Automatic annotation (TrEMBL):
The lineage of its organism: Bacteria, Pseudomonadati, Pseudomonadota, Alphaproteobacteria, Rhodobacterales. This is Uncharacterized protein.
Length: 74
């Protein structure tokens, strides 16, 4: 990464409630911050993160609220 630019790298997949579909990605920015990028359907319920993240990282992206979002088919 270039230290003069803000850049991010995908570090984990967000897995949908169906346990097989990737619905988004967790990115770590060179600033240290985490952010979520959703697929073209936008935010939806997440069942897990793969690979798993630390509890602190999950808290930063508010994983608990991601498990409560409506499913794509709701």
């Amino acid at each position: 990464m270039n230290e003069n630019e803000v850049e991010g790298v995908a570090i984990a997949n967000l897995i949908a409630a169906d346990e097989k579909t990737i619905v988004g990605w967790v990115y770590r920015w060179n600033t240290g911050a985490l952010a979520i990028r959703w697929d073209m359907h936008g935010p939806q319920r997440v069942s897990r993160i793969y690979p798993d993240l630390s509890d602190a990282d999950k808290a930063e992206i508010d994983f608990a609220s991601l498990t409560q979002l409506p499913c794509r088919d709701d």
